Amino acid sequence: MTTQADSPVKTAPVEVVRPKRSLGSRLASGVSGGVLRLFLILVGLFWLVPTIGLLLSSLRRPEDMSASGWWKVFSEPSQLTVDSYQKLLENSDITSSLVNTVLITVPATMLVVVIGSLAGYAFAWMEFPGRDWWFLGVVSLLVVPVQVALIPIAELFGKLGLFGTILGVILFHVGFGLPFAVFLLRNFFAEIPRELLEAARLDGAGELRLFLRVVMPLGGPAIASLGIFQFLWVWNDMLVALVFTKSGTQPITVALQTQVRQFGNNIDVLAPGAFISMVVPMAVFFAFQRQFVSGVMAGAVK
After folding, report:
1. Which positions ≥6 away from 179 have C-beta within 8 Å?
2. How far does CA 236 lie from the centroid of its chain?
């Protein structure tokens, strides 16, 4: 004889209510696969069209460029030649300007990264009188336009004998690049856990060793982002170089503009020169794009 307690208890099935998804959410999930990836590839190719066109133009003869557009090479591949690059290497103004561009860009980038890293660490973790006020003073320099300082600094460099020299251009770029560098790196270094630095100090690490062994490796993404920003700004600069350089110290941007002014039909030199001027910063960006993205996203998620 079975009792009511021994009889199995039947439970009604629980109905799971799923939240209704919005139309935008359904559309986003529907295109999140191959369709979205294909769309992004097409956008990237469309973005590269000017660069591809400039490359193909630099590989054509002047008479071919005058007769038709660069897309003609797809139907007539015989138009492609490296004669323009040979003429470019024979043009002493262009080759010397490329060397000048490297001599300006590399030191200006390295000095901003090194000095900005040291100053950013000092403002973030070192105690000294008036630290916050000094930092506010550095940040306030970000609002100073480059155009406002061109004439006063040109007069100052003229008195110091730096006007028209590569060193003068480097100092100008370093001076205007440091406020942003200090602001960026100080905020990044301030996010480093204090316990990590205290543990290193307990192990006997001094400030310099702490900076080189702990802070610099952790700040790699931000430092790489700063280096890319500074490199692109200095390499592509024309305004500062146009004001502070002379004929023997001009970078590639000013040299190409001079070629246009003096030789209006010198397209066989201008096209390969412009492509080289464009492809170098692009190569730097793509080489460090992983560090650049990490630096941009640093601090977004704790």
Report:
1. 138, 139, 141, 142
2. 11
Chain segment 101-110, per-residue pLDDT in tens? 999 999 999 9
**Contacts with 84 (C-beta within 8 Å, 6 or more apart), sequence order:** 58, 59, 60, 61, 268, 269, 271, 272
User: 164 forms bridges with which residues in the sheet?
Assistant: 245
pTM of the model: 0.77
What's the confidence (pLDDT) of residue 182?
Answer: 92
Q: Check if the beta carbon of residue 271 is closer than 8 Å to that of residue 84.
A: yes
- Residues comprising the chain, all counted: 302
Quickly list DSSP for the chain: ---TTTSPPP-PPPPP-PPPPPHHHHHHHHSTTHHHHHHHHHHHHHHTHHHHHHHHHHTS-HHHHHHS-GGGGGT-GGG--SHHHHHHHH-HHHHHHHHHHHHHHHHHHHHHHHHHHHHHHHHHH---TTHHHHHHHHHHGGGS-HHHHHHHHHHHHHHHT-TBSHHHHHHHHHHHHHHHHHHHHHHHHTTS-HHHHHHHHHTT--HHHHIIIIIHHHTHHHHHHHHHHHHHHHHT--HHHHHHB-TTT--HHHHHHHHHHH-TT-HHHHHHHHHHHHHHHHHHHHHTHHHHHHHHHTTT--
Amino acid at 61: R
Q: Residue 54: pLDDT above 90?
A: no
Question: Which residues lie below 8 Å from residue 160, measured CB to CB, with a gap of 6+?
Answer: none
Which range among 20-24, 152-156, 188-192, 293-297 has the greatest average pLDDT?
152-156
Please say whether the beta carbons of 237 and 173 come within 8 A: yes
For 187-245, write each residue's pLDDT tens digit: 888 888 888 888 888 877 777 888 888 888 888 888 888 888 899 899 988 889 988 98
